[in-house]
Amino acid sequence: MNHIDPWEEAKKRLTRIAALTKLDKKFLNQLFLHDNPIRMRLSIQMDDGSYKIFTAYRMQHNNTLGPYKGGLRYHQNVSESEVKALSFWMTIKNAVVDVPFGGGKGGLIVNPNELTDAELERLTRAFARELTPYIGPNKDIPAPDVNTNGKIMGWIVDEYSKAVGEYVPGVVTGKMIEHGGSEGREEATGLGGVYVLMAYLAGIRKDPKNMSVAIQGFGNVGKFAAKYLLKKGFRIVAISDSKSGVYTPNGFTSISDLEGYKRKHGSLIGYFDDKQRKKGIGKNIDPGKILTLPVDIIIPAALENMITKEIAKKIRAKIVLELANGPTTTEADEILRKRHIVVIPDILANAGGVVVSYFEWYQNLNHQRWGKSSVFRRLKHKMTSASVKTITIANKTNISLREAAYVLALRRIERTWQKQQNIAETSRQFLQKQLH
Ligand code: NAD
Predict the structure, then answer these.
(1) Spacing, Cα 233 to ligand 1 middle (Å)
(2) Which of 136, 62, 76, 147 has its CA nearest to residue 105?
(3) Rounded to the nearest 5°, which phi and psi values hold at 95?
(4) CA nearest neighbour of 269 among 278, 258, 254, 279
(5) 114: CA distance to ligand 1 center in Å?
(6) For ligand 1, atom 32: residue with the closest CA
């Protein structure tokens, strides 16, 4: 497979989409650069007494709409280019759903499975100490991403609070509930995606009842998407994880049952017993085939670049709901467009997570605690409103939903940028007058 440079790809897409809408050149040029690209070296003592050096990044892309916001990823394949692209997508995603944040992202080159708990904690605390001058509830607010979680966020709150001399839970989001996290954060990305899909189907007057769905990925996002889709009457006929896939033409009746099975056996292999298989109730399938099943909707909810050009040519669904980040390569996107397969883009479909992160930050800053139903009501409102706006732009200008989501975001950021420019200009003129 060709090596894909994520930041170069992201810039190419931005150039193409910017041509669809008139934007101020100075504003557009700013988006091709990161406000503050931060690189760090962290030296950690390992359990055996030796020292090891790790490379970490925090890429602060753009803060026109508010403090930088985006997760911290711990992975052996993290690269500067990847973190740059992810932080840029956060700028766009936050603007699509209209939360008052700019875009940022962090990454640490490490395979956390190779560290002991104590080493992981020392590494995170060292990362937090280096990050302290750059982050804060009104500056930059990290969150969990791949291989990071509420516990890791807790260590960051701790280090930051020690450094500034007061307890500041709002410096990160995605915390555990007992440490100031929000109700509903766990469900937010999957459920948010369901709200977006419902808004899209309502727009084309399509009844979701009985529409068949295949979901790739049975982690946090895939699991909650499946649960809420089932509640809405969709027929979930196939689900896969990295090792296994299950298929049942009549649809699963319980997602919790699948979850329990996976917890007990480590995968979904053998979920259907011999009797069920013989009766045609269900069967195991190759997880690599999940995206090309004959269903109405496919949901990539696993990793980046899963829909390649080869897969795109074979997809039989009419709708792709992108719950993973960047699941479709640029070439595949073009093929899907030519085949009139609708792609509901990641920057809209999976933004539920950052919306509830915004709610968490807001609750922390205002010393409030909202119940789950209140969080879900607000999430539905945000996701539906962003979906309707995106669909309206797409329909009016005959562009794809991905392009429309970008256009919505770029116009929103540009409007605020323009106001900031005007204020800066007025103060400059005022000062000049005072001097003369
Ligand atoms: P997770 O680690 O909980 O789950 C990932 C799932 O994908 C696992 O079930 C894993 O087995 C499966 N998987 C991995 N490789 C696979 C393969 N080749 N085929 C099929 N399944 C495979 O992660 P998550 O939090 O559910 O995140 C999934 C995606 O959603 C990622 O792209 C992530 O960046 C994106 N996302 C997550 C959130 C969030 O709030 N968690 C928010 C926005 C975007």
Answers:
(1) 24
(2) 62
(3) -75, -35
(4) 258
(5) 20
(6) 324
Would you state the pLDDT for residue 1? 46
Cβ–ligand 1 distance for 219 under 6 Å, the answer yes
Q: For residues 176 and 149, what is the distance between their CA atoms, to the nearest angstrom?
A: 9
Pocket test for ligand 1, best of 96, 215, 220 (most atoms within 8 A of CB): 220
Distance, in Å, from the CA atom of 103 to the CA atom of 94, rounded to the nearest integer, reads 7
List of the chain residues with pLDDT < 50: 1
Whether ligand 1 lies within 6 angstroms of the CB of 217 is answered as yes
Atom 4 of ligand 1 has which residue's CA nearest to it? 219
Give the Å distance between the CA of 216 and the centre of ligand 1.
9
Distance from Cα 351 to the centre of ligand 1, integer Å: 14
Which of 96, 221, 227, 350, when mutated, tests ligand 1's pocket best, judged by the most ligand atoms within 8 Å of its CB? 221
DSSP calls for 235-252: EEEEEE-SS-EEE-TT--
Which residues touch 67 (CB under 8 Å, ≥6 apart)?
Answer: 101, 102, 136, 137, 138, 139, 140, 141
Query: HSE-up of 233 (CA within 13 Å, CB side)?
Result: 7
Cα–Cα distance for residue pair 300/289, rounded to 1 Å: 12
- Annotated active-site positions, please? 105
Tokens of 31: 């988006």
245 lines ligand 1 (CB under 6 A): no
Closest listed residue to residue 217, CA positions, set 341, 306, 117: 306
Residue of 178, 211, 171, 174 lying closest to 342 (CA atoms): 211
Res 304: pLDDT: 85
- CA-closest residue to ligand 1 atom 42: 353
pLDDT of residue 324: 93
Which residues, 6+ apart, have CB-to-CB distance to 309 below 8 Å?
Answer: 329, 331, 332, 335
pLDDT, residue 62, reads 98
Q: How far apart are CA 415 and CA 33, in angstroms?
A: 19
Q: Identify the pLDDT of residue 279.
A: 84
